[in-house]
C-alpha cells in the first residue's frame, strides 16, 4: 500500500526542458495565456522550467506594454508591423535555445518578475 501523503517525485532535467520548450512554443499561439499558466503551474517544478516560465511571462508583459504604447502614438502605427516579427523570432530562438538546455533571456525585456 502506498503512502497517501507521498509527494510527487522531482522532475528530471529532460522533463523540465520539455516543459520549458512547451511554454515558449505555446506562447506563439496563446501569447499571454500560455506564459501565465506556465508560470503559475510550473514555477515549483524545478529551476530550469521556473526560469523559462518567468522569462516567457516577462516577455509577454513587455510586448503587451509596447503594443499599447505603439497603439496610442500615431508615429507608432508605422512601427506596429515590427512587433509581431520581433516577437515570433524571439519566441523561436527561445524555444531552440531551451531545447539545447540553455538558460535563455529575452533581449529588451523588462524583468517584472524576478
Question: Explain this structure to me?
Answer:
This protein has 114 residues and is mostly helical. The chain has a domain at 21-99. It contains four helices and no strands. Helix 1 packs antiparallel against helix 4 and helix 2 (33-42) packs antiparallel against helix 3. The termini are far apart. The mean pLDDT is 90.
Quick gist of this model?
The chain has helices spanning 13-29, 33-42, 47-72, 82-99.
Largest sheet: none
Share in helix: 55-70%
Q: Count of helical segments? A: 4
Strand content: under 5%
Number of strands: 0
Secondary-structure element pattern, one letter each: HHHH
Low-pLDDT windows of residues: none
What keywords describe this structure?
114 residues, mainly alpha, 4 helices, elongated
Strands, helices and their partners?
Layout: H1 13-29, H2 33-42, H3 47-72, H4 82-99
Helix pairs in contact: 1-2, 1-3, 1-4, 2-3, 3-4
Amino acid at each position: 500500500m502506498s503512502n497517501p501523503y507521498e509527494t510527487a517525485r522531482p522532475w528530471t532535467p529532460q522533463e523540465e526542458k520539455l516543459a520549458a520548450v512547451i511554454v515558449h512554443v505555446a506562447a506563439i499561439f496563446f501569447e499571454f495565456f500560455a506564459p501565465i499558466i506556465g508560470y503559475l503551474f510550473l514555477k515549483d517544478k524545478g529551476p530550469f522550467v521556473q526560469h523559462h516560465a518567468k522569462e516567457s511571462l516577462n516577455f509577454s508583459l513587455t510586448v503587451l506594454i509596447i503594443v499599447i504604447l505603439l497603439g496610442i502614438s500615431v508615429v507608432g502605427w508605422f512601427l506596429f508591423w515590427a512587433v509581431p516579427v520581433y516577437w515570433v523570432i524571439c519566441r523561436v530562438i527561445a524555444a531552440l535555445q531551451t531545447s539545447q538546455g540553455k538558460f535563455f533571456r529575452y533581449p529588451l525585456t523588462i524583468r517584472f518578475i524576478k
